[in-house]
Amino acid sequence: MTSPTFQIEDKLIERDQDPSRYEFRLERTGRQVTVVLGGVVVARSRRVELLHESKHMPVYYFPAEDVQMDLLRPSGRTKDVPVRGTARYFDVNVGTKTASDGAWIHESPIDPAAAGLRGMVAFYWAKMDHWFEEDDEVYKHPRDPYHRVDVLNSSRHVEVVVLGQVIADTRRPRLLFETSLPTRYYFPWVDVRAELLVPSTTRSVCPYKGEAEYWSVKIGDQLVKDIAWVYRHPIPEIPKIENLVCFYDEQVDAVIVDGERQQRPRTAWSKAPVVRTVTES
């Protein structure tokens, strides 16, 4: 499941990682990548390099020749970055629309491992309007080719307990296995106490699964906010979770699989659930 919004370059990924293992690797993806701002193609390249760096999401770097450099203006901001060296930032200007500090260049990488970044241009994902890999739009951040999502049919007996009550109980779950994340259990609606679910306005987007809509659990006057989600229309690569219900194992009272209470995972979503007392209007 997609976590709170990731910001490329400056923010670290909220995942448990072994601090003794540091990875810095550039690779040519072979994909044509396009960046759009204000309806204008700012960059389009079949020669992008994908940077894999520990504790960061992957980042696309574009050859300057494949970027409309006339749309970039130095912002005056610089930042010293380990391995990559000083980053010089640029505002991206398209007509009346400006993405402040929307792009950066490392002109003199300080480590030989980063030499391939010299003079290449990267963009803040969230500051651009649209990103495409070939002709498919991609959301949130680049898709990591080493990040797998597998959905398997199962006959395990899975129960979810919230506020002391069994909210979901199935012997036909679909289990979603995603690199570096806990197993997620997806339930058919008929095996969920749907009368206890309240739709939420919260939405999130995952580049590997699509857009999720959230649901809260209401028991009596207690409301546990945004503890479950559904992908109504997952991306074509992940059709097996369509319109199934999944819960945050980190926040429910318990997840019980084949009679065994599962250990609560520790992830970016390991926080106390938001429980509110509500009154009928």
Provide a descriptive summary of the structure in words.
This protein is mostly beta strands and 281 residues long. It has two domains: 24-137, Metal Binding Protein, Guanine Nucleotide Exchange Factor, Chain A; 149-277, Metal Binding Protein, Guanine Nucleotide Exchange Factor, Chain A. It has no helices and 23 strands. The protein has strands spanning 24-28, 33-37, 40-45, 49-53, 59-61, 72-81, 85-94, 97-106, 121-123, 130-133, 136-137, 149-153, 158-162, 165-170, 174-178, 184-187, 197-206, 210-219, 222-230, 245-247, 254-257, 260-261, 275-277. Strands 12, 15, 16, 17, 18, 19, 20 and 23 form an eight-stranded antiparallel beta sheet that branches. Strands 3-2-10-11 form a four-stranded antiparallel beta sheet, with no helix packed on it. A four-stranded antiparallel beta sheet has the order 6-7-8-9, with no helix packed on it. Strand 17 and strand 18 form a beta hairpin. The protein is elongated, with a radius of gyration of 22 Å. Mean pLDDT is 89; it is low at 1-17.
- Basic shape: elongated
* Major sheet characteristics: 8 strands, antiparallel
**Number of separate structural domains:** 2
How would you state the average pLDDT, rounded? 89
The name of the CATH topology of the largest domain is Metal Binding Protein, Guanine Nucleotide Exchange Factor, Chain A
As a whole number of angstroms, the C-alpha radius of gyration is: 22 Å
H/E element string? EEEEEEEEEEEEEEEEEEEEEEE
CATH class identity of the largest domain: Mainly Beta
The structure class reads mainly beta
CATH architecture annotation name of the largest domain:
Beta Complex
Number of helices: 0
Q: Which residues sit in consecutive blocks of at least 5 with pLDDT less than 50?
A: 1-17
Distance between the termini: 33 Å
Instruction: Tell how many strands the DSSP assignment holds.
Output: 23
> What amount of the residues lies in strands?
over 45%
Residues in helix, %: under 10%
**Relevant CATH superfamily of the largest domain:** Domain of unknown function (DUF427)
